[in-house]
Specification:
By secondary structure, the chain is an alpha/beta fold. The chain has 11 helices and 16 strands. Strand 15 and strand 16 form a beta hairpin. The protein is globular and about 60 Å long. The model has no long low-confidence stretch (mean pLDDT about 95). It binds uridine-5'-diphosphate.
């Protein structure tokens, strides 16, 4: 199979590449390297793998590569709370127009590659259900500013995907990704777990925003990519949003404690106001846990990684890369 991954030098994109290369597939990854890095390809064998630097809005070889692909994962997007708050115009430009350009290219190709258009748990906005199901109503508060912009850009991606499925019959999977974690994730643009790991291994305070009672559900990226592939293989999954994540929920304070415990770190926990972390306008998301019933009805997906196993793996991989005071080698 020939696989094209937009945003292929990003965290999830690079794991998709690794997953397909391990299966013997041929992979082309395109990325503008705005946040991604070619460092993520270290150890990839070049025979069946190609990286191209290109912006999803202008990449001139898009049509040619779309024609060649059997499956396309569209991961190119402005992500990470730091970038999202700093670059609200890029959020809508890249996320919405980039997806439109890709979908138009697929239509022009007169060819039906399986398509995976990445959505996000952020589409649930401030929904307050215990477990967020795909049918949950969504609530947005405009005062959240940039983050609402990101959530709506991802909801727009879902609507674009469903519209192109309806009108052009494209075989599109629409995963709503919940907090993927794992190797190669950078803490530079938000993303709590790599930050906590680095802080714990460096012996500096773990910065818990707010009082740490907010919850998230973390899914190992290696499970995430397997779920994406399984969904894409099943025509019954096409054309509808499907939550992809792990139903185990944890408070951020407990996550900090878990990282300290498993790394045997002497780091203290430091509570930092959301205003200091993200600016005074910021309205936090207090809770986020997926119902994964639809994913499990559509596939035989089961998680291979527990949160503890992921944390241990990250500690092991990062122990020799970090020197005290938090400098990453
Ligand atoms: N968070 C934190 N300390 C940090 C970075 C993040 O307490 O150094 C919190 C953040 O406020 C949020 C949670 O961890 O409540 C998850 O943040 P992340 O950026 O990983 O994901 P998202 O908020 O997009 O779900």
């Amino acid at each position: 199979m020939k696989v094209l991954i937009t945003g292929g030098a990003g965290f999830i994109g690079s794991h998709l590449a690794e997953y397909h290369l391990a299966k013997g597939d041929t992979v082309t990854a395109v990325d503008d390297l705005s946040t991604g890095s070619t460092d993520v390809f270290k150890g990839f064998k070049p025979e069946r793998f190609t990286f191209v630097e290109g912006d999803i809005l202008t990449w001139k070889d898009l049509d040619r590569e779309v024609k060649r692909a059997d499956r396309i994962y569209h991961m190119a997007a402005v992500v990470g709370i730091v970038r999202v708050l700093r670059e609200p115009v890029e959020v809508t430009r890249v996320n919405v127009l980039g997806t439109e350009r890709l979908l138009e290219s697929v239509v022009r190709s007169h060819h039906l590659p399986e398509l995976v258009i990445a959505s996000s748990s952020s589409v649930y906005g401030h929904s307050r259900q215990e477990a967020l199901g795909e049918e949950s109503e969504v609530i947005y508060r405009p005062e959240q500013g940039g983050l609402t912009g990101y959530a709506i850009s991802k909801l727009t991606n879902e609507i674009q995907a469903m519209a192109y499925r309806h009108i052009h019959g494209l075989p599109i999977t629409i995963p709503r990704l919940f907090n993927a974690v794992g190797p190669r994730q950078s803490g530079n643009y938000g993303f709590v777990l790599p930050r906590f790991i680095k802080q714990a291994l460096s012996g500096i305070p773990l910065t818990v925003y707010g009082d740490g009672t907010q919850t998230r559900s973390f899914c190992d990226v290696r499970d995430t990519v397997r779920a994406l592939a399984l969904l894409s293989e099943n025509p019954k999954a096409w054309g509808q949003p499907v939550n992809v994540g792990n139903a185990r929920e944890i408070t951020i304070l407990d996550l900090a404690r878990l990282v300290i415990e498993r790394s045997r770190s002497s780091s203290p926990i430091e509570f930092v106001s959301f205003a200091r972390g993200y600016g005074s306008e910021f309205l936090q998301t207090t809770q986020r846990r997926p119902s994964i019933d639809r994913l499990q009805e559509l596939t035989d997906f089961r998680h291979s990684w527990s949160l503890e196993q992921t944390i241990d793996d990250l500690i092991r991989r990062n122990s020799d890369r970090i020197v005290p005071q938090g400098r990453l080698l």
